[in-house]
Amino acid sequence: MVNILGSPNPDTPWAHLDLARSALSIPGATVHLYGKGPGRPGRKMGHITIIGGCMSQVESNALPLITSAFDSRTPPILKPPARPAPIVSIIMGSDSDLPVLLPACHTLQKFSIPFECTIVSAHRTPSRMVSFSHAASSRGIRVIIAAAGGAAHLPGMVASETILPVIGVPVRATQLAGVDSILSIVQMPRGIPVATVGINNATNAALLAVRILAGTDVTLQNRYDGFVKQMEEEVLDKAGKLETYSEQQGKEGWEVYLEK
Ligand code: RP5
After folding, report:
1. CATH top-level class of 88-214
2. How far is the CA of 173 from the centre of ligand 1 (A)?
3. What's the CA-to-centroid distance between 192 and ligand 1, angstroms?
4. Which of 10, 34, 178, 239 is a plausible cystine mate for 199, CB 3.0–4.6 Å?
5. Separation between Cα atoms, residue 108 and residue 89, nearest integer Å
6. Which of 95, 97, 123 most suits a substitution to test ligand 1, by most atoms within 8 Å of the C-beta?
7. CA–CA separation, 28 vs 219, rounded Å?
8. How far away, in angstroms, is 149 Cα from ligand 1 center?
9. Ligand 1: which residue has its CA nearest to atom 6?
10. pLDDT 10s digits, 78-110
11. Domain residue spans of the chain
């Protein structure tokens, strides 16, 4: 729900109706005007409700409305939107893991998925790990990405304290090159599953989270389809260049390709 407020400019007492009118074209939106007559600056003149199959669908449908309300050419007549609550939690055993997790953050950003990112250590902050795991679901978190290196117990321990899906990212943190981390995460006992991606492969952890969320979100499914198509086009484009070079130059195609 977003509130419709009277225009800050007393010379345009009906400006709030423009916003109400533009909301009519948004799927799932219903406009409620209170019939108070001309608006006074900041006075609540009505509200708009937007419903949808899931939060990210609602947010994406509401975005054009919110953007137009904050367009610098028009006076702001909506209260600033609250930051959307996170639905994915990225946790890590130490801040030294953060560089490995940046691709996960960027990937979730690309799919417009609200997420949080923090440090929770199974060994150094065990109480925090338990309270985080118990509260995650009720805070609206739908998927947890947990990264750890070495004796990487964080994903498994979190999975034992929540029913949310947990995706473990083994971090290459010690002289054992991440093999210790991946074995610690992947060899879970029967009954407590943890999805495990490759060593340092935070991108795949985020993509798996997107796939889990897309199961109940058509907008995300469409975004993922777009992502897959783009990936395919990039590979076909590279293959096309490689083949062309081989035909047009005196050298082998792979030699020319690598020189470009
Ligand atoms: C693990 O120990 C962390 O996940 C990290 O990968 C590793 C090293 O942590 P720091 O000593 O850098 O804090 O718990």
Report:
1. alpha beta
2. 7
3. 23
4. 178
5. 11
6. 97
7. 14
8. 6
9. 149
10. 555 578 999 999 999 999 999 999 999 999 999
11. 2-69, 88-214, 230-259
